[in-house]
Design a protein that fits this description.
Blueprint: H1 5-20, E1 32-35, E2 38-40, E3 48-49, E4 51-55, E5 58-63, H2 65-68, E6 77-80, E7 85-88, E8 90-91, H3 97-103, E9 107-108, H4 120-133, H5 135-140, E10 143-148, H6 161-165, E11 173-177, E12 182-185, H7 187-192, E13 205-209, E14 216-221, H8 222-232, H9 238-253, E15 257-265, H10 267-279, E16 285-290, H11 292-295, E17 314-316, E18 318-322, H12 357-369, E19 373-378, H13 381-395, E20 406-409, H14 415-424, E21 427-430, H15 433-437, H16 439-446, H17 448-452, H18 458-463, E22 469-470, H19 481-490, H20 507-513, H21 516-521, E23 539-542, E24 559-564, E25 567-571
Parallel strand pairs: 1-6, 2-7, 8-15, 9-10, 10-11, 15-16, 16-17, 18-19, 19-20, 20-21, 21-22
Antiparallel strand pairs: 1-4, 2-3, 4-5, 7-23, 11-12, 12-14, 13-14, 23-24, 24-25
Helix pairs in contact: 3-9, 12-13, 13-14
Length: about 575
């Protein structure tokens, strides 16, 4: 939220006033004191404390319970921590806020442990149940399901149009792969979108075909999927959108997030989110990165919302580009072939780019000319090579400044690329959640054992003193903060195998990667990310200390409260 200079000065001087005051009348009391806990400040000196005092939504003082009790005045709210642990509010360094809202109201097609769909039959049953019970179907005449995973289905394949026709032939049925980069559609949906045997593959996308090599199977990859998916999503009413986004917000705040990203914003979302933020309000800060390749150089990119300051808790932080696809969906762009190529592809198949160098450079150049921060989705090492190559070209003709271009995911970063990332100032936001969700799949099918152990190679970044973040990419996975920490610290697969011992993070470094370093990624390190005087009073209260529990138990830590700007926005009622 916006903070005035006056408020900041007031907070900074309040502690000094206590030290020099001679009488009770001269004291400036806190709005809230948090006492008798374990406070992990995550500041640069890794201090710990027992208590916190706040004023006007900012941190006023940090220290012992005895010291902080001095700020307890007649109107001060007292929060007894009861030896629970306080950490800074979590920052999801890459996710899709609007998608999380949609995830909350569509059919859940996730496999275990997050959902019920482990076979094609399970998927069909979930969609039929959704048809019978969801107002979405009744009001908008479409069946939508999110997050099936072919790598976890018993059949080890994508559902096709025939599988979805068994659910309905009368209304469109669309299901999205857990990567978000692939979709499956029934015959009705394909017909409505004009997809036929004569439809050619779009640039950067594939329409999968049946045995005759012509008839669409219903499975659409990358730009083929993107070009029709959003056309099938209903034009929700304002009331439905408010409910949708508030449902998504609850998913975040129940996991301790106080700042989240809308990481590939379409025009409809960009039109409505600022309005909802101003009129209905959100309890968290939302940073939007519009998809520049889809939207182009739109006026909103030059307006007041493109700012480092929030307006009603919303701002545009820059723009987004997507250079390749999904490794688990086998559309990411590698320099070496996939360990097991997808059906119908030759042994030499290594994925494919979303853009030519010329087109990608056009968008990057526009962003740098306007000093917009850029998020670039790059999963495969060939896509990362493209990002490095193009930033080098831009650097050769202009001063990059403090650009903090973000390499989103960077899962198959090679060791020889690490120094180039550092020298060019490219900021890595990695995705260790894959070690749990798809680690076995990457090892056995996607990349093979040698490449798989180095997915999201945080150890190589630590060796070079490179700051980085870790993220949920929700709704690809739930925005589960404890699972994010667990995967980065333990790197254990579904079959309980450690994938990449050298890349395990310490609990403190993992915590920094979703707080202090994430604030730096967002150009917000001066106001967020650690529990220090003058910063926003954004906290998470946990039922256990992630620095002292058995690391294998971190995913079981409970969020007790989420606090943003000194306001309790979530309380665990269990």
């Amino acid at each position: 939220m916006e903070k005035s200079v006056i408020n900041l000065i007031l907070t900074l001087i309040s502690s000094v006033l206590f030290l020099v005051s001679c009488s009770e009348e001269e004291a400036i009391y806190a709005d809230t004191v948090y006492l008798n806990g374990e406070v992990i400040t995550v500041d640069e000196k890794n201090h710990t404390a027992e208590a916190i005092a706040t004023k006007n939504g900012l941190i006023m003082a940090v220290g012992s319970t005895e010291y902080i009790s001095r700020f307890n005045g007649p109107a001060t709210r007292v929060i007894e921590l009861r030896d629970n642990t306080v950490v800074p509010g979590f920052i999801d360094a890459h996710s899709h806020f609007a998608g999380v809202g949609t995830q909350a109201i569509v059919a859940n097609l996730l496999p275990a442990p997050d959902g019920p769909v482990n076979t094609i039959e399970d998927l069909q049953e979930s969609l039929r149940d959704f048809m019978e019970n969801s107002p979405i179907v009744e009001n908008y005449n479409v069946v939508i399901g999110f997050n099936y995973d072919d790598s976890q289905l018993k059949e080890m394949r994508h559902p096709n149009r025939h599988d979805l026709d068994a659910v309905s032939t009368d209304i469109p049925v669309v299901v999205m792969h857990q990567s978000g980069h692939i979709g499956a559609y029934n015959s009705k949906a394909l017909s409505l979108m004009g997809i036929t045997a004569e439809t050619t593959d779009p640039a950067g996308g594939v329409i999968e075909r049946e045995a005759d090599g012509k008839t669409p199977s219903g499975v659409m990859q990358e730009n083929a999927h993107f070009m029709i998916f959003f056309r099938l999503i209903p034009d929700f009413t304002k009331e439905d959108l408010v409910n949708l986004y508030k449902a998504g917000e609850l998913s975040y705040i129940s996991n301790g997030f106080t700042t989240v990203q809308e990481g590939k914003t379409d025009q409809a979302t960009l039109n409505v989110l600022p309005d909802i933020a101003a009129n209905t309000g959100f309890d968290i800060d939302i940073i939007s990165y519009p998809d520049i390749a889809v939207l182009g150089d739109i006026p909103q990119l030059h307006g007041n919302l493109m700012s480092r300051e929030y307006s009603n808790g919303f701002r545009i932080g820059g723009v987004k580009l997507t250079f390749d696809g999904s490794p688990q969906g086998k559309t990411a762009w590698f320099t070496e072939p996939y360990f097991e190529p997808p059906a119908g592809q030759p042994a030499s198949y290594a994925g494919y780019p979303a853009f030519t160098d010329e087109k990608a450079l056009e968008w990057l150049s526009l962003a740098f000319q306007n000093h917009w921060q850029v998020l670039v989705h790059t999963n495969g090492d060939a896509a990362i090579d493209q990002l490095i190559r193009l930033i080098e070209m831009i650097a050769a003709r202009q001063d990059l400044g403090d650009h903090r271009t973000v390499m989103i995911h960077g899962q198959f970063t090679r060791k020889d690329q690490v120094n180039k990332l550092k020298s060019l100032g490219i900021f890595p936001s990695l995705y260790p959640m894959h070690t749990f969700y798809w680690g076995d799949w990457h090892r056995d099918s996607v990349a093979g054992p040698e490449r798989a152990v180095n997915i999201s190679p945080t150890g190589w970044l630590m060796e070079k003193d490179i700051l980085f973040t870790i993220h949920s990419d929700a709704p690809v996975t739930f925005p589960n903060s404890m699972r994010i920490l667990d995967s980065a610290i333990n790197r254990v697969t579904r079959t309980d195998v450690v994938l990449g011992e050298e890349h395990k993070l310490s609990p403190l470094d993992a915590l920094k990667a979703i707080t202090l370093w994430a604030a730096y990624q967002n150009f917000e390190e001066k106001i967020k990310g650690s529990i220090e005087v003058g910063k926003q009073a954004d906290f998470v209260i946990l039922d256990a200390n992630p620095l002292s529990v058995n690391p294998r138990e971190i995913h079981n830590i409970k969020i007790l409260n989420t606090i943003n700007n000194d306001k309790i926005i979530f309380t665990n009622e269990q």
